[in-house]
Design goal:
With about 350 residues, this protein is α+β, with helices and mostly antiparallel strands. Strands 1, 2, 3, 4, 5, 6, 7 and 8 form an eight-stranded antiparallel beta sheet that branches. A hairpin with a 5-residue loop joins strand 2 and strand 3. Helix 1 packs parallel to helix 4.
Length: about 350
């Protein structure tokens, strides 16, 4: 029997009023609770303020977008595609890219980029061209512009100058005779044979007032050697012989565009001819004319021994559908701004209005 004060040996702490100790293994059905550590709160990342460049890029993109939208609303498709507009578009794009490249510009830069992608010369110009419907002829036609767009001559050239110029037929005949004489001389001295390549063509010349004139540009048949010309000394010798024939026909001495001594920028020469040294160029281009007559003469030599891959692809496109070989010496004549004899009377009649 337990006394009123109780038996202290029954309590774990030996203190009066304390609960009894649990049995070995704990109470049946009791759940064990694992204490949870308090969450760790990390420091917020420091705020990066957008740079001045990013704000300027965003402002430029927004202003340029509003300008384009204004042009669109006014139906000014020509102004949208103007050189100044395109140049401003390029400047804005460069500013946006620069802003994106800087760490402090990445907060605002993407917004500017989105504006440039959505509102630009290409998209707004296309929308303006498709969506703008011009008014009636009485509202949009300019009789003065239409009058000069029909000008049969070329701006800056008088009627007498054009009529005094060698006609298309005579100039083309002279060019053919010149190339025949060159081919005969080269065949006799160097044993080369020839094949007719890309055919002749004519196209109408612009009149300088937004329309087409009655004058044409004539491109002759191209004549090419059947075999490549790869020896450097032989190339020079053949060009020298061509120069002699040209002199006999009243032409000036040829200018080698591919030679650094011609005065052209070396970077230009390397880009167009494959190298700055004529010894390792894939293309030679020599030129002359018989000014004041209208005939322009060209002699090209394609030597793909030194091709970097660009020239073969270009040549294959040039000679497609013709018998012209990829390599060899090529002769051709270009005659710009000449009037056909068959059009002289009509030309005189139409010029009376001007």
């Amino acid at each position: 029997m337990v006394s009123a004060k109780g038996d202290r040996s029954l309590y774990s702490g030996g203190s009066e009023g304390a609960p009894p100790s649990p049995p070995p293994g704990g109470y049946r059905g009791a759940r064990r609770v694992t204490p949870v550590a308090p969450p760790v709160v990390s420091e917020p990342p420091p705020k990066v303020r957008p740079s001045l460049l990013s704000w300027l890029a965003l402002g430029a993109a927004a202003v340029f977008g509003f300008v384009l939208l204004g042009m669109w609303g006014a139906g000014a498709t020509d102004a949208i595609y103007a050189a100044a507009t395109v140049a401003f578009q390029v400047a804005v794009a460069i500013a946006v890219v620069a802003a994106l490249a800087a760490p402090r510009g990445r907060a605002v830069g993407p917004i500017a980029l989105a504006l440039v992608l959505l509102v630009n010369v290409g998209t707004i110009g296309a929308a303006s061209a498709v969506g703008h419907h011009p008014g009636s002829a009485s509202e949009t036609a300019d009789p003065e512009e239409d009058f000069w767009a029909a000008y049969p001559g070329i701006r800056g050239q008088t009627e007498s100058e054009i009529l005094a110029r060698t006609s298309l037929e005579v100039a083309a005949g002279q060019g053919d005779a010149l190339m025949a004489a060159i081919r005969a001389r080269l065949s006799r001295e160097y044993g080369v044979e020839w094949v007719q390549g890309v055919g002749s063509a004519t196209r109408t010349e612009r009149n300088g007032y937004g329309g087409e004139s009655m004058l044409v540009q004539y491109t002759s048949v191209t004549w090419a050697t059947t075999e490549p010309i790869t020896d450097y000394e032989l190339k020079l010798a053949m060009m020298g012989t061509i120069d002699e024939v040209l002199e006999e026909y009243g032409f000036w001495g040829m200018v080698p565009f591919n030679d650094p001594d011609s005065g052209f920028d070396p970077a230009y020469i390397e880009r167009l001819y494959g190298s700055t040294s004529p010894r390792t160029q894939a293309l030679w281009e020599w030129y002359t004319d018989n000014e004041p007559e209208p005939i322009l003469f060209y002699a090209h030599i394609y030597d793909l021994t030194f091709d970097d891959g660009r020239f073969r692809a270009a040549r294959e496109a040039q000679v497609a559908g013709s018998n012209e070989p990829l390599e060899g010496l090529l002769l051709s004549v270009l005659i710009p701004e000449v009037l056909s004899e068959a059009d002289v009377e009509e030309f005189r009649e139409r010029m009376q209005a001007y």
